[in-house]
Amino acid sequence: MKFDGTEAIAWPVATKAVCALATLAFTLFASAQTSTSQTNKPETKACPAGVAAGSRCLGGRDSVGAYYWFAIPPEWSGVLVVHAHGGPELGEPKAQRATADLTRWSIWTRAGYAYAGSGFRQGGVAVRAAAEDIERVRQLFISEIGTPRRTILHGQSWGAGVAAKAAEMFTHSVDGKTPYDAVLLTSGVLGGGTQSYNFRLDLRVVYQAVCANHPKPDEPAYPLWQGLPLNSSLTHAELATRVDDCTGVRQKPEERSPRQQRNLKIITEVIAIPERSLLGHMNWATWHFQDIVFRRLGGRNPFGNEDVRYHGSADDDALNAKVARYRADSEAVSALAADTDLEGKIPVPVLTVHGIHDPVAFVELESFFRDTMVKGASSDRLVQTFTSDHDHSYQSDANYVAAMHALINWAEHGEKPTASGVAARCQNLDAMFDPVKGCRFIPEFTPQPLSARVQAR
Question: Which listed residue, 56, 252, 407, 437, has the most CB atoms within 10 A of its CB?
Fold first, then answer.
């Protein structure tokens, strides 16, 4: 069965009513208060692995169900780092996620900063709700620990979009003081939902044209922008097996059949992703799309590819004739944009760190983010730095501490850093924080426009 996109236009009246109710419910839910008045008191707990020795750690669950952690090092500088984690996770909130974030970012305590992080009150792609959770955990830290000398908002990966959204929503002067003094965004997914995820629709349609097993021919057909029907029982392991059967991606290159080699080459070259990230992106283009479409948008389609021409295969004409085409629902796009897209109106210093070879969040997203900050009249408050890293989840302690030092100095003394200055600062910190991984800043690098990686639509 071929879906030509018309199902997104001629939507049944009853379904439209459900969509409207779902959107209204989502809007009301996402506007929940950030008050800490009904929050359970945090409990003193043993600090997770990696946290600075002698730190005081507290954890709990806030008034709307988000798990959180505080960590205060023994020689606290007075700077608080409020952390927004990546993902997003799907399903109900889990205490383990908040704990894992503190472990991964325990460098902040070893560098003398206090840490406050929220696991978010719900799973899924809900940026404004997550931004409210971040602001709530900041307020809770103040009520339980005290007012820090400086507060830096840090977002990683998808959490960078959350942090940027929180900076737009909550960083406003009150009695001459802003809640956040500066923002650090690392490996950021900074194109919002309407720009950051288009390539995953491209992946689904190209993969299906090549492999024809997600869904399989004997399974009910569905428009690929849905990610997966709600009644599907497909597991991550089963999807991985399908992808491996078609591409051999989990096998050594020399063990792949000629068919698998050909299929993998087409998919990775057309979509411009490394093979090591294929399974991850297929997962996100399946279950995260399902979350966006059904939990956030009432079943409507925010992704289209009507005018996209795919290239990079041995026969692009044949490939383009075979891929499914969809038209995005304008109301769905607007609803997704309202929750996830950025305006670029951030009134405090912002510094970004991004690996040039990031396999998950393309470095070209930084170019889009700079354009967004220009449109929001905030470009003079933005400094972008780039590293030679090939990893997404974590680079090196020295990279992050150097960026944080430069950002705090900018917030306190008005000295706007340069990419070369951050690189030099990192060299001075290298032996202290990360002599193994070291510093890998590339000051001269400038990313291409996002359209050079993902065709605009």
Answer: 407
Q: Which SS3 state, helix, strand or coil, does residue 185 take?
A: strand
Report the run of H or E that residue 83 belongs to, with start and end.
strand 79-84
* Largest distance between two CA atoms of the chain: 67
Task: Write the single-letter amino acid at 222.
Answer: Y
Give the three-class secondary structure for 394. Answer: coil
Q: Alpha-carbon torsion 88, 92, 94, 98, what sign?
A: positive
Amino acid code (one letter) for 212: A
The first and second tokens of residue 257, run together, are 């059949």
- The answer to whether the CB of 369 falls within 8 A of the CB of 383 is no
CB 84 within 8 A of CB 134: yes
Long-range contacts of 7-10 (CB under 8 A, 24+ apart): 7/223, 8/223, 8/225, 8/300, 8/301, 8/304, 8/326, 8/327, 8/328, 8/329, 8/332, 9/327, 9/329
Do 121 and 71 meet the contact criterion of CB atoms below 8 Å apart? Answer: no
Among 390, 384, 367, 385, smallest CA distance to 448 is for 367
Measured in degrees and rounded to the nearest 5, phi and psi for residue 334 equal: -65, -40
Give the pairing of strands 56-61 and 67-72.
Answer: antiparallel
Q: How many CB atoms lie within 10 A of CB 414?
A: 8
Helix H or strand E encompassing 23: helix 13-30
Taking the CA atoms of residue 343, residue 345, residue 348 and residue 350 in that order, the dihedral angle to the nearest 10 degrees is 30
| Global pTM value | 0.90
Per-residue pLDDT for the chain (457 aa), expressed as one digit of tens each? 333 333 333 333 333 333 443 443 334 334 444 444 455 789 999 999 999 999 999 999 999 999 999 999 999 999 999 999 999 999 999 999 999 999 999 999 999 999 999 999 999 999 999 999 999 999 999 999 999 999 999 999 999 999 999 999 998 766 667 899 999 999 999 999 999 999 999 999 999 999 999 999 999 999 999 999 999 999 999 999 999 999 999 999 999 999 999 999 999 999 999 999 999 999 999 999 999 999 999 999 999 999 999 999 999 999 999 999 999 999 999 999 999 999 999 999 999 999 999 999 999 999 999 999 999 999 999 999 999 999 999 999 999 999 999 999 999 999 999 999 999 999 988 778 876 677 999 999 999 999 999 999 9
DSSP helix/strand/coil, 1: coil
